[in-house]
Amino acid sequence: MRPFVVLIFALSLGFCTSEPQKNPTRDPYSLETLIFLEEVLLDAWESSESREDAMSRLRYVCRTRDTDDGYLCYTWGLLEYHRGNYAESYTAFRKALEKNPNDSLYKNMLRISAEKSGNLADLKAHSREGEVLAIFTEAQKLCKENKTPELESFRILAERGILTKETLRRGVLSDCFQRMNDGDKTLVQKEIRLSSLSYKDRLYADQMKTDPFSRIWDTASYHRGESGQAVGASAGVVTANAPIGTESGVTSATGLVKPSIAITEAWRKLKLASLSGNEPQGREAIRSFLAEIQSAKRKGKLEGQLALALERAAKLLLEQDPQYSKLRFLAKEL
Hints:
Blueprint lengths: L1 H13 L16 H16 L1 H18 L5 H13 L2 H14 L4 H14 L2 H7 L1 H17 L6 H9 L5 H6 L3 H6 L2 H10 L7 H12 L9 H5 L37 H15 L2 H19 L3 H20 L14
């Protein structure tokens, strides 16, 4: 499936109609932004002379006209971190979080760069969440040095939902916790919330949020790595044998198909029809798929580009993928 992801991304760029500009736009997926980012990254790795100019350009656009999701500032932060300029990377990650305050990846890099640059005190004073990130980093550092953090640090982390029963058993702070006396352990455990925090689910949620195809396609199964019976060629899959009403399918607990993934359901039905060679169902499914494609194109410029890329990829699948050999003639409908 991953080659098809690259195919769709390339097609989505190919069908953009706007002319390249010197600077990026606020849209992180615009052709102008992608071209700018490509040029900067190529220059950053070409030579020391071009690298400094590239970093200067990236620093400027971060401070003056970053994308709405803060990605250019984040890119600047990564490059500075790689160069060992931790203070600069800390500044960049802070600016990225100002644009996208709920991004877990940005938060983690801000925390790491704060430690590397000696800015934990600044991070702690920046916000309530910054305080938690700083306390966690300080506690983690002490644990690595075989020192036990203060009880108050554990209590705050437990109270804010960072520590769970599971992380106290197997997390990075588990050894430190085991060295605490029984009385302190009890005080910390009293602060732990009943609901556990799933970092895996948070990762999947962040990946889906930053995947542009999530606007029109169910990308959950793709990001979870559920590629056994992949349907479709976009940056997201559903399982062909997933029963309706299951997590891998596209129906909610109420039995209603979610509007944002109706196009995925249409393609799922098309694949099932192809696997069985059911021509009437295949024709009905392709009509439904095309109707959803047209609906997506009317939602906005980006959605239109993604839908067009998805349509082209679907045509290639029907023409070339062995799984669709029984209904190959349906490619003429696209």
